[in-house]
Amino acid sequence: MVPGTVGSFVTLVALWLIPFNQPSLIVTLIAVTLLGIWSGGRVERALGTKDPGVIVIDEVAGMMLSVVTLPRSIPVLLAAFVLFRIFDIWKPFPARESQALSGGLGVMLDDLIAGLYALLVLLALRAVFGLPG
Q1: Which of 21, 55, 56, 60 is spaced 20 to 30 A from 95 at the CA atom?
Q2: 85 and 66 in contact (C-beta within 8 Å)?
Q3: d(CA 22, CA 88)
Q4: Residue 106: CA atoms inside 13 Å, Cβ hemisphere, count?
């Protein structure tokens, strides 16, 4: 849990400091996801363990997805961080089930689902309460 939280927090800081526009964030998210699928499977095979804690690229992708369409203000980033970690730890359907997939896809998909859930909650909160960025 600690490596995932640290990886998510480092991503939060990077999302705050790096001046991504939306297209560049989407391209970076796709690149990180593809790299994570490839490298996650390789690390699993090398260590002989399913989704070992040393892999945090999945948290990077999940955190990026959680804010992909939102302004990256401090309140949004902090809310995305908290929601992403909750969904990543809780692993609501189908996140937990996706871990059964083999290789890097199983490593990455549960965190992408957690990131999507966090994004959907943030979008709903903004729609219902009209929260600014």
Answers
A1: 21
A2: no
A3: 24
A4: 16
Q: How far apart are the first and last CA of the chain?
A: 29
The amino acid sitting at 90 is W
Asked whether residue 132 carries a pLDDT value surpassing 70, the answer given is: no
pTM score above 0.90: yes
- Enclosing H/E stretch for 49: none
Tokens 């937990």 correspond to 96
Determine the length of the chain: 133
Question: Looking at residue 101, what DSSP letter applies?
Answer: S
| Tens digits of residue pLDDT in 23-49 | 999 999 999 999 999 999 999 999 988
pLDDT class for 130, splitting at 50, 70, 90? confident
The tokens 């990180």 sit on which residue?
Answer: 32
Q: Report the distance separating Cα 11 and Cα 128, nearest Å.
A: 27
CA distance 75 to 116: 18
Omega cis (within 30) before 94: yes
